[in-house]
Amino acid sequence: MKYHQKPNIYANQIELKVEDLQRSLDFYQRIIGLKVIDKTDQRAVLSADGIQPLVTIEQPQDIQRKEPRRTGLYHYAILLPSRADLASMIRHFIKTGYPLQGASDHDVSEALYLSDPDGNGIEIYSDRPSSAWEWRGNEIVMGTNALDVQSIMEEWDGKPWAGLPQGTIMGHIHLHVNSIEKAKKFYCEGLGFEVVTSYGKQALFISTGKYHHHIGLNIWNGTNASPPSDNSVGMSSFTLVLPSEEFLQRTINQLERIGSSIISEDGALAVLDPSGSKIKLIVE
């Protein structure tokens, strides 16, 4: 997981608003395999390893169902340590009968797609070795091909599924935005990401350290899409980890230079992207 440590910038957790906390808890524990590390009547913090928060779910009192065709979360992506772990996850989904929305071979990775009970998108994937990734200059080759499930299942280690394995992390965040150009300026000039590939003018993939992508951006909900209401189901925020306090200060200066305002909440720093998604900035 060298792409999710210093000196890279990467997402390590996400906060979601849900309509029914208990329903979501059942899903995230029984279907996804996360562990509860903290819980109140309205909020639960979930982890793969029992230590590091990965997904936080909260049920606000005035919550409303997810609004269609808004900016915000397209999906968050859980990165498994190995292809064998992906095989175990496939067996688990077959056993539970939980419906998947897709499965793809992206050349650099192999992925499963589904949604939680509120329609928050989730990708669960494993990476191919970076030595097998194809680069054309500074652009990485990523496709969308049929997943070879039989080949993956041949790597199953025979162990029964017991939740997400140790070493599972947040792989990337993929967002609906309302302008690719504004998003590119914010994430690249402001936060310091680099473009690694694009799908025409519809989607952009960015990273640090030559990962295939730490963040995906698309306009598939329309260039006139507006942010969701504060009380809508969906993403509250996601957290980006920066490599040092010096880097954080430099990032703040870059963000302010392009017109973004830094928000201080309970001692933590955050910023809104041009489409209204909140990003918390931390140093670990």
From TrEMBL:
The species this protein was found in: Cytobacillus horneckiae
InterPro entries recorded: Glyas_Bleomycin-R_OHBP_Dase, Glyas_Fos-R_dOase_dom, Glyoxalase_1_CS, VOC_core
Pfam families, alphabetized: Glyoxalase
Residue ranges annotated for the VOC domain, each copy included: 10-127, 169-284
Gene3D superfamilies: 2,3-Dihydroxybiphenyl 1,2-Dioxygenase, domain 1
The protein's name in its UniProt record: Glyoxalase
UniProt xrefs under CDD domains: VOC_BsCatE_like_C, VOC_BsCatE_like_N
Keyword rRNA processing attached: no
Keyword Aminoacyl-tRNA synthetase set for record: no
MF terms in GO: lactoylglutathione lyase activity; metal ion binding
UniProt keyword terms in alphabetical order: Metal-binding
